[in-house]
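FW: tagging you since you asked about this chain on Friday. Here's the raw sequence from the shared folder, copied in full. Didn't touch anything.
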Amino acid sequence: MHVDSSTLRGARAVGILCALLLLAPVAVSLAFPAAFFYAPYHLPYQRMLGALLVALAIGMLLALRDPVRNAGVFAVVGLTVGSLMAAIVYTLLVDGEDPVHWVAQVPLHLAVAVALVVTYTRLRRPHPIVVRIVAAAVLLLPFGLYLYDVAYKAFVTR
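HL: got it, structure written out here
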């Protein structure tokens, strides 16, 4: 499939911007932990989340060498970040966490997820069923998390 040079430049720019936005919480959370983590803070979980975000950013940067051949990376990172955002929204709604997450994390992850998925659709023409499955996965994730919470309370906290 041939993609014009302006689409390739745009894909590379989106990839670099999204990689930087994925790295931002790792650095900014040192100064403003309440914007990205939930009290009480647990250093092992903060490290794991930071490692995940760094790995996604590195994956994005590695995909930029040939965005057309690596278009799937845009889709997978977009799906991952969208799922992370859905989990954050669920946590904010159910657990009533600090509202600063609504203005820090949610817009950041939403912007990255949408930019990567839109860029993917510009690089490749995905099958409409795949698009529906990805959208359903992100939208239904909060319900899956609710079922997980119910199972956890029923079996683990006895």
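FW: The radius of gyration is 17 Å.
HL: agreed, and The chain has five helices and no strands.
FW: great, closing this out.
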